[in-house]
Amino acid sequence: MTKKPIKPAVPAAASDMDRGASAGAAPASNRATRAAERRAAIVDAALEEFIARGFAATRLDDIAKRAGVAKGTIYLHFKDKESMFEELVRTVIVPVVARLAALPPPAGSVRDLVEAFANNFLKEVVGTRRGDLVRLIVAEGPRFPSVADFYYREVVSRGIAAMRGLIELGIARGEIRQKDLARYPQILVAPAMIAVMWQSLFSRHAPLDAQDMLRVHLDLIFGERRTT
Amino acid sequence: MTKKPIKPAVPAAASDMDRGASAGAAPASNRATRAAERRAAIVDAALEEFIARGFAATRLDDIAKRAGVAKGTIYLHFKDKESMFEELVRTVIVPVVARLAALPPPAGSVRDLVEAFANNFLKEVVGTRRGDLVRLIVAEGPRFPSVADFYYREVVSRGIAAMRGLIELGIARGEIRQKDLARYPQILVAPAMIAVMWQSLFSRHAPLDAQDMLRVHLDLIFGERRTT
DNA sequence: CATAAATGACTGACTAGTCAGTCACAGTCA
DNA sequence: TGACTGTGACTGACTAGTCAGTCATTTATG
User: Fold this and answer.
1) What would the DSSP string read from start to end of A161-203?
2) Which parts of chain A sit beneath pLDDT 50?
């Protein structure tokens, strides 16, 4: 989670202080670079704190301390705690979605495609900070409709659509028997979500081999795999 | 705002949860009874507030107001906010588990059993206050290890064990082909959990027919059902 | 009437958000 | 090149407000 935006990121950001500057004219300006680094540090720190404590219980002072920044600095980058949380979610999710959306290499069987997807998800999300972010969204979603909306629009609806496409392809190719599955791609994804939650909540009680579980689930959908 | 609450102004509120006692008829003269009613009112109110706002953002004043009680009264029943939350979860979950644990009438096919279970879950949990409670536990679990522990011990591990038993029976009877499924009963339950989350988070974006989805999922596990 | 239950004003700890002041740095000039 | 200066990023002490928990007082009960 340590990335360095080369340019003064300041993405959408909707509103808040826009400060005449912007206009990325100044090339390689030491000043702008430092500002971007600071912003990134704040985002990282905030993510960590929000995941650990939830929105309401997180103190801006702690975020500032963790980011190695004074509290006032946070307000140079974000309007207030709420919009910081909202922007944070966007900032973290957008690149992940972008990466996933740019993946699908249309080769091999549908099962292989789905399996590749699952493995990717396993490695990139389950048991990582990003998995905790999903739990955070589930937790705070009802109190942050804009976050829930964003997440639905950018992640859920797209993911569902993509999975539906894959399922329909699988049906067409005869890899999947159960035709109704295309109506509920959620079923395909459900165990992966459970794995995410399980890791945050119960892994210390009963560790879960998510990879193996997903394999079993895919066997269920595609039929048992012949011995490799 | 200067009134004398001679009676519990907001008595039952919306409690359809458990605790069948107190139908709101008898004025309850017995001292112990009234105390119990108060406690129940506080529990109901607290549940409502915690679900709506999360632990940290919930104000004791609001709980008191909703319960038709002064704030001090809360402290006659609970040590502090934290232990109130913990006890609350226990209080609400225990009777549900008890009821479910006392159900299984071992008759009919395994599929019928599971289906009965699913329908029960659908009616009693998905889209109800109890479903929101599950989301609340997912949300606050990491910050309340004792709650997560309790939930794992009383609900998750038992549920998993029960499902595993059912799956093994299904395998033995030839209703279920996929033998590995017994290793991951989570897969059987996953869509139901997804349904719970979906209702809280996305139902206004895209309503989900949970019943139909679960049917499709069971078809996947048991094979398509012959037309009834 | 004695005692238990209930109340709600109050306190003290805590925190989101502010803003006057500091100072590092880019730009300018000699 | 080195000294000078205006800018604005950054700071952190401070304000105003919030809320968990207390307790002296009032009310109900047996």
Assistant:
1) HHHHHHHHHHHHTTS---GGGGG-HHHHHHHHHHHHHHHHHTT
2) 1-28
